[in-house]
Write a structure and sequence with these properties.
The complex is a heterodimer of chains A (about 280) and B (about 270). Chain A is an alpha+beta fold and about 280 residues long. Chain A has 2 domains: about 160 residues; about 60 residues, SH3 type barrels, CATH 2.30.30. Chain A has 11 helices and 5 strands. Chain A has a 5-stranded antiparallel sheet with strand order 4-3-2-1-5. Chain A is elongated and about 125 Å long. Chain B has about 270 residues and is of the alpha/beta class. Chain B has 2 domains: about 110 residues, Pyruvate Kinase, Chain: A, domain 1 (3-Layer(aba) Sandwich); about 150 residues, DNA integrity scanning protein, DisA, N-terminal domain (YojJ-like (1, 3-Layer(aba) Sandwich), CATH 3.40.1700. Helices cover about 30% and strands about 20% of the residues of chain B. Chain B has a 7-stranded mixed sheet, sandwiched between helices. In chain B, strands 3-2-1-4-5 form a 5-stranded mixed sheet, covered by helices on one side. Classes of the chains: A alpha+beta (about 280), B alpha/beta (about 270). At the A-B interface, strand 2 of A face helix 6 of B.
């Protein structure tokens, strides 16, 4: 369907009015009109795409800043790296959406212009583009969230002055990044079965060992909730739990402090249920 | 110039230690550079990560209390020993250092202020929070009128057994702790009513409206203080609790431990 009927150039060239300036204008006009209308449309689409991309990027940036993203991710490693390259995470994400729209518009323009021989290639790209874009977004999100998690866990653990805890923040960070990479790869369509199995094993191990390690703590915590809500005994009551008896000094989620004659027992709440509580009244 | 220089030189002549009260960065760095005997920093926050540091729970307006607290704390940490002569750089009229005070570390300086915060049954943060509430209450009063209050902090189980309720306990089955902003408002409201507040070691408010029934023998508190102070002082003798009392008549906050008055603060100055 190649019907870009060019207006016959001969006619204007043989125009009787032979003023040189006039003929130059005519020549320009003829050159312009010789370009197929479809191509004009394509150029329009590209221009429109560029404007739209800039607009969306600006709006996105505004939205991200308005949502308080820069303050939230302040100090993360990804943000610092971005700063080193003279940009920031927010502008990176905003630009990414802009580029996405622009590339999309270029592809639309190419389709409109019917550049035959590359169509098949571009069709493939057009199909891949959204998932590629999503993958990049997920990756950035994963990195930023991972950094943030590392910072939060690190701050939380700072009170515990134990050098061994240093590994936990980075472990938390890389867990988040790993999941993000997995999702990103899945978006692009790469088979991630092996990695999923790895993740499953890892998660299973965490749950299993966590449950094993925290068994008593969880049981005590569950009982602690009952004790705090129902208050079968309160501070000041004389109780006997198992073979420890005395005055209750403190009840919290995990333990009960029972004091008798200058001896303070810290009883795990679990024991209140397994051994029963005896309230002593004189 | 030399005369004034000598004056200061005499003051710090062969002292065994230097105490910096809330020093600024450059002052601390100068002392940190000379490393034979690091200075003891006494401040509310350890801004300079000083090796020898005593935390002030309150910004004691009374300089004597501040120095006592710092020296007692340093003795407790082993930074100085009895018989030492120390120079204290403090801010008397403002936050910045404007005075150097020489004092000797003796038993007499041991008034128990540091002990009150650091070695009570209750958590130091809890003691500080209760002080904050009492000071705020003393400053503002109840609807502009001066109000009295009695807080018994720590050893709550024993205190509850040595007291009886005057009315229904508004804090029953609630799990509120001093220091939460909303609780301070609640405490202020309930301070209108008579009786003591009982606060546990971890800061949980166990009860309000408690009538304390300690034995009052051998309680040594200054004459002229009322029944509230007597009850507060006596309960600290019978139990391991401390009592923080806001006086309705003179508006001062007093702290009792072991049956004796340890600290007296004027809320107006905070």
């Amino acid at each position: 369907m190649s019907d870009p009927v060019p207006i016959p150039t001969a006619e204007t060239a043989v125009s009787p009015t032979g003023v040189p300036l006039q003929s130059a204008v005519d020549m320009l006009r003829s050159a312009l009109s010789s370009v197929p209308a479809r191509l004009w449309l394509a150029v329009g689409v590209v221009l429109f795409g560029a404007v739209l991309a800039a607009l969306v990027a600006a709006v996105n940036r505004r939205l991200l800043v308005g949502a308080g993203v820069p303050e939230t991710i302040e100090g993360t490693a990804f943000e610092r790296t971005a700063r080193e390259f003279g940009t920031s995470t927010v502008s990176l994400v905003a630009d990414l959406t802009g580029y996405f729209i622009f590339i999309l518009s270029v592809i639309v323009a190419l389709t409109v212009a019917r550049v035959r021989y590359i169509t098949t290639f571009w069709n493939g790209v057009a199909e891949l583009l959204p998932s590629l874009f999503l993958a990049a977004l997920v990756l950035i999100l994963g990195l930023v969230v991972g950094d943030k998690v590392e910072l939060l866990v690190d701050e939380r653990l700072r009170g515990v002055k134990l050098p061994q805890t240093g590994v936990i923040p980075s472990l938390a960070k890389w867990s988040v990044v790993f999941v993000a990479v997995l999702v990103a790869l899945g978006q692009v369509g790469i088979h991630t079965d092996a990695l999923v199995v790895l993740l499953g094993t890892y998660g299973f191990a965490v749950v299993l060992f966590g449950a094993l390690a925290f068994r008593d703590l969880l049981a005590s915590g569950a009982v602690g909730f009952y004790l705090l809500l129902q208050q079968p005994y309160t501070i000041g009551d004389r109780v006997r739990i198992g073979d420890t008896d005395g005055v209750v000094q403190e009840v919290n989620v995990f333990v009960t402090h029972v004091e008798s004659d200058d001896e303070e027992y810290v009883v795990p709440n679990r024991r209140a249920f397994t051994d029963g509580i005896v309230r002593l009244r004189e | 110039m030399t005369a004034s220089g000598d004056l200061l030189a005499d003051l710090v002549d062969d002292v065994d230690g230097v105490f910096l009260f809330a020093p600024n960065g450059s002052t601390y760095d100068e002392f940190a550079a000379v490393d034979d005997e690091p200075a003891v920093v006494v401040a509310q926050e350890n801004d300079h990560d000083a090796e020898r540091y005593v935390e002030l729970p309150l910004a004691f307006d009374n300089v004597r209390d501040r120095i006592r607290f710092g020296v007692e704390g340093a003795m407790d940490h082993g930074y100085c020993a009895e018989g030492d002569e120390v120079a204290c750089a403090v801010g008397v009229f403002g936050d910045s250092t404007d005075a150097v005070i020489r004092t000797s570390v003796t038993e007499s300086i041991h008034s128990g202020i540091y002990d009150l915060f650091a070695n009570s049954r209750a958590d130091p943060n809890v003691v500080r929070d209760v002080f904050d509430v009492a000071i705020e209450l003393g400053n503002k009063g109840q609807k502009g009128k001066p109000v009295g209050a009695l807080f018994v902090v720590g050893d709550a189980g024993k205190v509850m057994n040595k007291s009886r309720p005057l009315s229904y306990n508004p804090f029953e089955k609630s799990h509120v702790h001093v220091g939460d902003p909303i609780v301070n408002v609640m405490l202020k409201e309930f301070s209108r009513l008579d009786g003591a507040f009982v606060i546990s070691d971890s800061g949980k408010i166990v009860s309000a409206y408690r009538y304390l029934e300690p034995g009052a023998e051998g309680v040594d508190i200054p004459k002229g203080l009322g029944a509230r102070h007597m009850a507060g002082g006596a309960i600290t003798r019978d139990t391991n609790a401390i009592a923080i009392v806001l006086s309705e008549s003179d508006g001062l906050v007093r702290a009792f431990k072991g049956g004796s008055l340890v600290l007296e603060l004027d809320p107006e100055e905070y």
